[in-house]
Amino acid sequence: GLAIDFIGAGSANAAAQSANSTINGIVGSTITLSVSGDVTINVTPTLGGATATGAHTVTVGSNNSTGYDLKLSSSTTDTTLAKGADTFAAASGTFGAPAALAVNTWGYRLASFTASMYAGVVSNASPATIKTTATPVASDATEVTWAINATTAKPSGTYQRQVTYTATTRP
Prior knowledge:
- The chain is an all-beta fold.
- Helices cover 0% and strands 37% of the residues.
- The N and C termini lie far apart (81 Å).
């Protein structure tokens, strides 16, 4: 007779193959922003102009690995402090080049500014970046001091402007 031999039949050798897979856990960036409240400045005007101040704290938290930018602007394109048709112009200084408040103007200052120097609030069309960080921060406080310089030529009353702070994670 004819004998047939099955090669490998009943063999204890099994075929095997391995593959690796990478598991990616992507943690998204978060950011929080709070402002300690509205600012009320009580100024008693003088003939030559008197300055008074008030402050609040803006607090930002972010887990973003490259930090955040904090911007400030008027909530509209109008940068005056207004009571009807009566207004205080925004200070002439800028964030990059703060200046002394002229009479009948208003502005803000940060601790990093030279003493008694202020910047004028800008339009919401072009907010000013007032702080940049490069790392995550759990709770980063920035005190913003607001000031008005008023002469007796300004009618009494409450002058207002809403400002907007915007915190954005950095790319």
